[in-house]
Design a protein that fits this description.
alpha/beta; 10-stranded mixed sheet; 9 helices; binds 3-hydroxy-5-(hydroxymethyl)-2-methylisonicotinaldehyde
Length: 279
């Protein structure tokens, strides 16, 4: 029997085999927020020790097959996109997104991984901008991605993030969230809906273990949107989710480790998200 209470969320993104980012982070996030997670894998990221080749894209046919299966077997209440890698994949994904109706699409314009892997080819930027971003309810660039989307304009301060959010906004319903994770001082994100500027702030958490934070943030927004939160409330809840996951992050190695989505199950927030609207 159909269970209308459990919302269905699809991530279209890359597989990060270490488990911290990409599809793996998205599915963990969906699970913790209590939605039914599904995935379309666009590319597999994993560095071969001999060849150093670290991106293994899937065929358009494989991508279309996954999408068709997810929709036919399950159906979908919201979608997030992450790593899309190439022009060919972006056109295929854009065509698939155009088949959906009346659902929120969260576009995380993933470009470069924490270990400097190229997750979006340079020549694919135009396709992302022209075919996928226009279908988004909200885009979630970090400061580097916002800079690249704005012709490499430097984005270094909260004021720069604010102006970037305004300049990335386009006609219609789209929201822009510019994430200030790389600011010095508090982690302040700027949300613009075409009318008002909102700030979402938490104190800087002293850890390098933030792998998967961006992926989980956009996944959490998609999950809360599927649960019928407004965009503002979804962003706020998602930032709270990711902040708690960062507060309890850890590492298995001497390199920066993953955020800990599961911490949200057992812990009240240590760092509470504060929001304010610019008047
Ligand atoms: O964190 C960005 C990201 C997104 N998607 C995949 C990744 C990474 C970072 O490594 O591997 C698949």
């Amino acid at each position: 029997m159909e269970n209308k209470n459990i919302k269905r969320v699809l991530t279209i993104a890359g597989s990060a085999s270490g488990g911290s980012a990409g599809i793996q982070a998205d599915l963990k996030t969906f699970q913790e927020i209590g939605v039914y997670g599904m995935s379309v894998i666009t590319a597999i990221v994993g560095r071969h020790p001999n060849t150093n080749n670290n991106v293994h894209p899937l065929s358009v046919e494989a991508i279309e097959a996954q999408f068709a299966t997810a929709l036919e077997q399950t159906g979908v209440d919201s979608i997030k996109t992450g790593m899309l890698f190439s022009t060919e994949i972006i056109h295929a994904v854009a065509d698939l997104l155009e088949q959906t109706q009346d659902i929120h699409i969260v576009v995380d314009p993933v470009m470069v991984g924490k270990h400097n892997s190229i997750l979006l080819r340079n020549d694919a930027m135009d396709a992302l901008i022209n075919r996928v971003i226009p279908q988004a309810s909200i885009i979630t660039p970090n400061m580097i991605e916002a800079s690249i989307l704005l012709d490499n304009r430097p984005i270094q301060s909260v004021e720069d993030c604010r102006q970037a959010a305004i300049d990335l906004h386009q006609e219609g319903k789209r929201y822009v969230l510019v994430k200030g994770g790389r600011l010095e001082g508090p982690a302040i994100d700027v949300l613009y809906d075409g009318e008002s500027i909102y700030y979402l702030e938490v104190p800087r958490i002293p850890t390098l273990n933030t792998s998967g934070a961006g992926c989980s943030y956009s996944a959490a927004i998609a999950a809360y949107l599927a649960k019928d939160y407004t965009i503002f409330e979804a962003v706020k809840a998602a930032k709270q989710f990711v902040t708690t996951a960062i507060a309890y992050s850890f590492s298995y190695t001497d390199k920066p480790g993953p955020i800990h989505q599961i911490a949200n199950r057992y812990n009240d927030p240590i760092y509470k998200v504060k929001t304010y609207k610019e008047s």
